[in-house]
Amino acid sequence: MLSFPSTLTRRSRPLLLLSLVSTARSLSSIPPPPPLTHPGIHPPITPTSIKPWLKSLKGSIVITGATGGIGSCIVNDLIEGVGEGERIYALSRKVEGSSISKSWDPEIVTPVNWDCSTDDPMPSFLEEGEKVKLIIHTAALLNGSHGPEKNLKSINQTHFLNSLNTNTYSLIKIYQSLLPHLSPPTHFYPTLINLSARVGSITDDKSGGWWSYRISKTASNHAQVLAGIEVNRQRHKCNFLSVHPGTTYTDLSSPFVKGVGGKVHSKEFTAERILELVAGCEEEGSGGFYDWTGQSLPF
């Protein structure tokens, strides 16, 4: 029941009613806001042979997680094809003096110790004036000592924050340290690849679970979008891509690949395919989320 303030006279009440009705009609005529649209789908990337691309690459390359299964294979592929005088920086927790680093050509590869899961910033390793053309971030935390969570009750704060620190905040530290040193675009746009995961897709999630890993990968995908916007606005055109490499047999995934069958890739295949995607990507791919075939994935 409509009640009126006691200060209103009997004569003014009809006028107030007319005003309320008029306002209601006016509001009802305002169209509703447009519905939210699905995130834009980026054009597919055609995997391209890496050999001619590597020979023409001008600028240094940074690989994180360089002693891991995928990261070490990427470093090996780059050593075989990189142009003369180019430098590869291989970052990992204990890479300096390791057996794998001793197999790399010291004229091409510089091992750098960096544990991206800690609070330590990325160390300085570039020479004065040195420019970076390609960054591939392969380091990640999936289960640790806690394991992927199957339900809400199993979420542990320490593991959750460790996942965010390793899988998401490590990207921020890379941005802060290396983006000021990106080389200007020539025939190849400076590129930062973050190895993501399809389980980080909000739209594609129909099974749930794996809370910490999913959330951290979703956040890293958004970080790539934000970095691409900021750098392309302030500096020059760059590619910031999130790539789902597919299930690959490595120490990270080995506890979870039973029953997957032929869908599991070798680390050598995955490493080569990632580089083929880099060689085939164009400017308009910046901020995109892709699988190993080059198809765009929904965020």
Automatic annotation (TrEMBL):
<dbReference type="InterPro" id="IPR036291">
    <property type="entry name" value="NAD(P)-bd_dom_sf"/>
</dbReference>
<feature type="signal peptide">
    <location>
        <begin position="1"/>
        <end position="29"/>
    </location>
</feature>
<dbReference type="Pfam" id="PF00106">
    <property type="entry name" value="adh_short"/>
</dbReference>
<dbReference type="InterPro" id="IPR051468">
    <property type="entry name" value="Fungal_SecMetab_SDRs"/>
</dbReference>
<protein>
    <recommendedName>
        <fullName>NAD(P)-binding protein</fullName>
    </recommendedName>
</protein>
<dbReference type="GO" id="GO:0005737">
    <property type="term" value="C:cytoplasm"/>
</dbReference>
<dbReference type="GO" id="GO:0016491">
    <property type="term" value="F:oxidoreductase activity"/>
</dbReference>
<keyword id="KW-0732">Signal</keyword>
<dbReference type="InterPro" id="IPR002347">
    <property type="entry name" value="SDR_fam"/>
</dbReference>
